[in-house]
Amino acid sequence: MSFSSLPIVDLQSTSDEIRQSLLNACFTTGFFYLSNHGLHPLQDQVFNLVKEFFHRPLDEKLRHALSPTSYHGYLRIGRENLDSTNLKLIDEKEAFKFGQSGLNNIDQFPEIFHHGENFQLIQTFFHSCYDLCLRLFEHLAETFEINRDYFTSKHQWDKPPGATMKFLHYPPTNKTDSIRAVSSFFTHFNECISFPQGAHSDYGSLTLLFQHDNQSGLEVFDRSTNQWHPVEAHDDKIVVNFGDVFEYWSKGMIKSTIHRVNLPTVDQQHHSRYSIAFFCDPNGDTLLTPIPSKLIQDRIYIKDQHATHVFPDDDQRILTAGEHLQMRLNKTHTY
Ligand SMILES: O=C(O)CCC(=O)C(=O)O
Ligand SMILES: [Fe+2]
User: Fold this and answer.
1) For all residues of the chain together, what is the average pLDDT?
2) Residue 275 CA: which ligand is closest?
3) Per DSSP, what are the bridge partners of residue 242?
4) Cα separation of 162 and 207, whole Å?
C-alpha cells in the first residue's frame, strides 16, 4: 500500500479517468479524496448546525440520548468506543447519530433540529450523500466491468438497515506533550485512557467523511509497515473509504483499512474538531459473495492478521450484510 497521498477521484473528469483513479484507490489504501462532488455549499450549512447542536448544554443533549432500541440519538463522550481490541481506550468524542429509518419523524429529534429549515436541511443532506454513494457505486461497477446496477441494486433506499449519518465533535484537549507521554505509559498499568477515536475499520460498503476548517486528525494504518499515516483534511474534498463489505466482496483486493482519529497537534489542541460521517450499508439480506468480475474471480483470498476483524472465525459460511453488521455492532463497546 502506498500512503504518499490519497488518490483523488474528480467527479468532473471523464469516466475513464474516474475509473483509473478508483482502481488506484481499490489497489492501495481503500481511501480516496472525492473532489467536485457538488455538496460543498450544503455541507457548510450543515456544519453550522453541527456546531450549534454540540454547544447546547449536556443535560439538553442527554434528553435525546441514543437508546438501545432506536437508531438515532446523542452519544456522550465515552459512550461509543470503536477499538474493540482495547477495552481500556475511551473515545473522547461526542456524536449524534441519524438512522435512515427515523428521518421522517421530526418529533424524536432535539429542538434545535426543528428550528426553521434545519430538519429539511438534514434530510436534504442525507439524501444527497446517499445519491452520491449511488453515483460512486455506478462508477465502481464500470471499474469492475460488471452490470451498472450491480451495487446500486444492493442498496435500495426502502430496504433495511439503511444508511447512517453521524455528526461528530472532538472537544479541545489540553493534553500537553508530557501528558501524552504519561498517557501511553498508563496504558501499561490497566488504566483507562482517552483517545479522540479508537482504531477501527468501517462496517458497511462506503463511508463519506466531511471535515471542517481543514482540521486534520484522521490517520490510516498501513498493514504492510505497521505504521499510522495522517490524512490531510481539505474542506472541499470528501474522504471516502471502503468498509468491510467491500473487503469481503473483493476477496481482499480492496482493503477495509483501519483508521482512527489522533490527538490534535499542539497548535490545534485548543480547537474543537468537527466532522460528519455518512455510512452506507447494503440491504440486510445481501450475501457477502465475491463480485462477478474478472478482476477478482481468480483471486485466492489470503487473510492477513488484520483481516481478523472482518473474518471473526474460520467457518466458511457466507454471511449476509445484515449478519455482519450486527456482529460488528455487538463488538463496539459502550459504557
Ligand atoms: O471523524 C473522523 O475523522 C473519522 C470518523 C470515523 O472514522 C467513524 O466515525 O467511523
Ligand atoms: Fe471510521
Assistant:
1) 88
2) 1
3) 206
4) 13
Q: For ligand 1, what atom is nearest to the CA of residue 218?
A: 3
For 210, 312, 318, the CA distances from 315, given in Å and listed in that order, are 37, 9, 9
Evaluate whether residue 149 is within a structural domain.
yes
How many structural domains compose the chain? 1
Protein residues whose CB sits closer than 6 Å to any atom of ligand 1: 166, 168, 197, 202, 209, 217-218, 259, 261, 275, 277
pLDDT in tens, 257-295: 999 999 877 777 888 999 999 999 999 999 999 999 999
Can you tell me which atom of ligand 1 is nearest the CA of 202? Answer: 10
Asked, for residue 225, whether it belongs to a domain, the answer is: yes
Longest dimension (CA), the chain: 56
| 329 Cα to the center of ligand 2, angstroms | 13
Q: Which ipTM did the prediction report?
A: 0.99
Range of the domain at 253: 8-329
Q: What is the CATH number of the domain that holds 40?
A: 2.60.120.330
Residue of the nearest CA to atom 6 in ligand 1? 277
